[in-house]
């Protein structure tokens, strides 16, 4: 399969039609390159707050609400594009009100047949806890698709190995991210590469890029797209299948072979995924020693 992962820049939007045109342009470009799976980043939907004007877009709480209010329309656009181009899309995540307290950070996953489901972020960063006050969402999910089994770890979630292990059946783990500083980008990238190593799978990282003075929420963003696998048989020695250019908007493409994933899991030089369970008795037997 061919995967396209985005380094996505936010724009000031003066009309809903402008948003539709932008998204359609991104999808058409990737589809034109033969991509079957498109990955957009975390909080890429925050540009929708500009449709309510500068006062709303510049206010953290009001911008969160404004974006949440438009998510049904966002879903309709993505469903149409996924069907029209016959591909899968992980849409940019957004703060979404579920009617059960504070908003969650949710990414919708769209299939070519018009169906869609979502993945919520599990563990909040410090800024999501305060001042955003975003809540942890529903459980991790494993999407069974024509492209293989796909899981999603939203940004910070990729830095936690037990969340990755819960998706050990996934062939692909998608990692939409939003990071302010270069150090944040590398934390998420290291997490994504670590999950690819442990699960002997492919991870796909998408990044928000660019600076937006109009936003309190996503004013500064650093990153690039990347696709990673285990540095083992059938994969590059570095584990990097593809990477973009830092802070340059656009798609990064990679060819991914499900047979290569199955082979490295069965007969790699190391078998991290199979040997994972051998950690447990070793951890339980740790003793205190004084020297």
UniProtKB/TrEMBL annotation:
The keyword DNA repair does not apply. The keyword RNA-binding does not apply. It comes from Ruegeria marisrubri. Pfam families: CN_hydrolase. This is Amidohydrolase. One of its GO terms (molecular function) is hydrolase activity, acting on carbon-nitrogen (but not peptide) bonds, in linear amides. It comes from the Bacteria. Residues 1-258 form the CN hydrolase domain.
